[in-house]
Amino acid sequence: MKTTEQSSRYEHLDRMGTLDILKSINEEDRKVPAAVAEAIPAIGKLVNGIVERIPRGGRVFYIGAGTSGRLGIVDASEILPTYGVDHTFIGLMAGGDGAIRHAVEGAEDKEDQGWTDLQTYHPGPEDTLVGITASGSAPYVVGALKAARKAGLLTGAVTNNADSPVTLVADVAMVADVGPEFVTGSTRMKSGTSAKLILNMISTAVMIRLGHVQGNKMVDMQLTNQKLVDRGTRMIMEETGITEYEQAKALLLRYGQVRAAVDAYLKQ
What we know:
- By secondary structure, the protein is an alpha/beta fold.
- It has helices spanning about 20-30, 30-40, 40-55, 65-75, 80-85, 115-120, 140-150, 165-170, 190-210, 225-240, 245-255, 260-265; strands at about 60-65, 90-95, 130, 155-160, 170-175.
- Strands 2-1-3-4-5 form a five-stranded parallel sheet, sandwiched between helices.
- α11 crosses α12.
């Protein structure tokens, strides 16, 4: 039996009080980082492969169903505002965009549909496809990875079950064995948390390696709200030695980006 389908270690959840439920969930959640740590060598291998490909025009596609698909879309959608990079990380999920909010029955069972959905983007050998499936057996994901690998893409799998089908069809298998869920089979819990952590690691490491972070600062972030304008202003003050907040803010708004503003100021 798949680890993600094994019975919870806790019995009679329906008889537990609120604090017992919360403490037990927290106890299980503590196991997730250790499980993810075991996958770091594989994650690193995938990151290095992506870093080689993006400068040659490559993109990273996340593909999944249900919670896994939504997590991929969330991670991909945050790359542009955080790092100023567009059309590089792209998330797709079984059932299309409508499935982000509402489940589409049977969408993940169509083995050919994942690769079909990718054709909108004309995938090629410089691209990377990362399949996300807690069970490791979602046909939508497995089928897409099979086709992508055949087409020459770099392929990675994020899963919670070792030796599952998805690990056999991907170039790099990133397995986080988090154990049975607190509520039996509810993979939106520990399994979903582990996938979120791994996707964070992949995209963040790639963006750092590609130069979108200087020191520890997001120098290419978009100025999409006042919080980020304030953050960017203080980053400019720190990097340039400007002591007047309004001067630094004006410089940021003029150039629209911390990196560009700092470079322009230092060239004066």
